[in-house]
Amino acid sequence: MSAFYVLVFTAILITYRVVRGPTLPDRIVGLNTITTKVVVIIAVVSVIRGEYYLVDLAIVLLMVNAVGGLILAKYMERRASHD
Fold this sequence. Notes:
Largest sheet: none
CATH class: Mainly Alpha
GO cellular component, one term: plasma membrane
Subcellular location: Cell membrane
Transmembrane segments: 52-73
Keywords: Cell membrane, Membrane, Transmembrane, Transmembrane helix, Transport
Shape: flat
Radius of gyration: 15 Å
Number of helices: 3
InterPro entries: MrpF/PhaF-like
């Protein structure tokens, strides 16, 4: 259970980078990190509670996170080429 608290605490710390990040890439990396931590939290909670269907939810969230990261990277690439 202490792993749960460590993950939540570090996700809260990373929230500072998302809110106050000096650049857009810093914010995107922070948001992806928080989402990955949420996936791990869901997996840990599902194992502790024995509700393994939540692992499916975590996998879907991880896939959405990966696709979202790719979309944002493509957006930043296009924005950089127009400048």
